[in-house]
Amino acid sequence: MINELRQLSQAMEESNINGEIWHQKYKPIPNIRANAPCVRILIDDGKVIELSSVDQNKGSCLRKFGTNQGSYPCMNLAPLYRITDSEVKKKLSSLRPEDLDEDRIDRIRNWCTDSNWGSKFQGKYKVSMKNTTTELASLVPDFKSIQILIGQSNYFLDSAKLHQEMENVAFEMLSSKHEVSLALSVLFHYGNPDKNAVDDYGSISVAFDSPKLIMGMSVVSNKFTASFNACLLSAESTRLKKNDVPGIDASYIVDAFGIKFDPLEQPMPEVKLAGGFDVKLRTMFKEQHCQTRYRKIENASYPISPLMREKLQASLNWSGRKDKENIIWINTDRNEILFAYPVDLIHEDVSYTRMFKRAQKNENAVEKEIAFEEQAKRFITEIRSAKKPGADSNAEKIELFILRKIDKARTKVVYTRQTDPYELEKQSEAWTAGCRNLPTFTFGLPSIPFPLDMADILNCFWNQKGELITDKFKPVPKYHGIELLMDSQFPVTADLHCLVEKAMTISVFLRNRLATGNLNHHKRGKFKDMLALIGLMLYRKGIGKDEYMESLPYLYGQLLKVSDELHALYCKVVRDNELPTKLAGGSLYQAAAEAPIRTLNLLGQRMNPYILWAKNYRTKKITEKGKESWKAGWFISLYENIATELLTAWSTQTRFNDEEKALLFLGYLANFPKKEQTADGTEELNKTEEVTDHE
After folding, report:
1. Burial class (CB in 10 A: 0-12, 13-18, 19+), 296
2. Domain limits for position 125
3. Are residues 449 and 464 located together in one domain of the fold?
4. Does residue 51 sit in helix, strand or coil?
5. Which of 292, 287, 114, 284 is nearest to 188 (CA)?
6. Is 42:50 a contact under the CB 8 Å cutoff?
7. Beta strand spans in 410-460 (E)
8. Count of domains in the chain?
9. Of 41, 511, 515, 653, whose Cβ has the fewest other Cβ atoms within 10 Å?
10. What is the pLDDT of residues 126-171, one digit of tens each?
């Protein structure tokens, strides 16, 4: 990640873009949600004046100074009391504001018996309210707002005093029926009776504030956060200068980018991305010896100077902002973000991510209808037109990298590439051509999937009824589609095998739907997308449509299909439209893939009675829709012609490989060759044209 951010920081410098730099210990608070509020505690001269919830938008600017053990002025407190009785939990959960009266409030007060501020919590409380405030008092003595707030919070160095004040205000809120849910979340933690109360105390995010600050600079404001950060950075800069002794270079080392600096043992900066997770620029821990490189660990293994740390942090802060979403970054998955930006960072409203992901449902309705191929063309046109006049060719370079959150502490670059408009155009055209490498189908050709749609298709697992088995198991990462798009030589053997396995499962279900003319299915789009990917995989293996439509497995699939159609026609006419769960061809589909020679003999035996019936029925001149007698003659003609072509293409192989199974699947679903009339009125087949099954 460091190398990618280094390139981004250089691009920002060249474009005169300044990113935000935050003090190492001044970190964002956890995301505010309905079930995880942030409580503003308004204090004044030893009294808690008010408890209120912080608005989610306003709270997005809040930060806390400190460590995981304690912080200030925002911190994590614990709810005041712990409840383990399941009946009491149910009563509290179902409590409505209109139900509150004096008797019920007294009952709630009687449940406040088991204090939740135990010894372990008291230790963290001391770190926050005493140790951290003492550090801040000496670190930023000139920042009046924090000094005033520290003076106010010093009234509560004894946790029992704050506990009592918060309890009083919480019950006042219940009595006035004001923010009842917040009051209850402050009062009670729903504990686990099987856990030790010392460890099971929960947490609630809080921000201390004071009326003495509100008129000037409330803690819950962008102004306070920015001013406090500026003071912290200034103090850090002063500290580093004091440690810089002129004329003495012996203690200095050079970082990975050639910058001299005094050795330091500080963790790398952490950045909160609008994409939904926090990123530590690099995480190494000396106790994990497997992370040792060249007999060095932590900062010594890859030294980064404070100046470079600031640049890396600023570049990630700038690129990961909310207003850059769908411009230079998009979420590819829950814990995965794709960054795409031009090397010269042109100030244009060009989305560098638009060709990788389908427009979301909540976006502009017009944008939702734009197909991949059109989206790619627009993108290429925009970035070429946005190029600065006289700029060299390097100005068109585009950087791509994908960050994935591995676990709570680690984030990894899982993909990185430098590209340009020419390569993007070439690869998008190849992607489109591959997805169009298909015969025609009754239900029409599938749309071109976007690269980030590919993983969703590969991660669909069906049963034989056309139902999704699970949507929890996702072995293929979202960025895999980017890998395939950008590298036409990327191996596709595993992907094709995955698609063929799905095809073997779902083929008979789809074919039965087609035979009955019932194409409606809530997952129909997923099935069609699978066909597009099969076409792409075959294209990547050098198997084109013009070639494979004359091949043995494709023709075999067509033979199974015409067998199904003839059997279905027989059932509609003779059995009053009662179709079996598997038609003649479909019942042998699996066997055909594994033992094509033996299965062909069996198919001939099964089809004999239907062929004899069809030869008689074709003379009836019946025109009733769905039971037309001319279809019987057409199916017989198709059967005979395909069988003849099979004989020409026949080989001695005993089973099909994955490529051939894919062709069997396509042939099984594809339209038949188009029927044409000759001058004497007889029918003949044109192999190069196709027609739908049902008229």
Report:
1. middle
2. 26-220
3. yes
4. strand
5. 114
6. yes
7. 411-419
8. 3
9. 653
10. 999 999 999 999 999 999 999 999 999 999 999 999 999 999 999 9
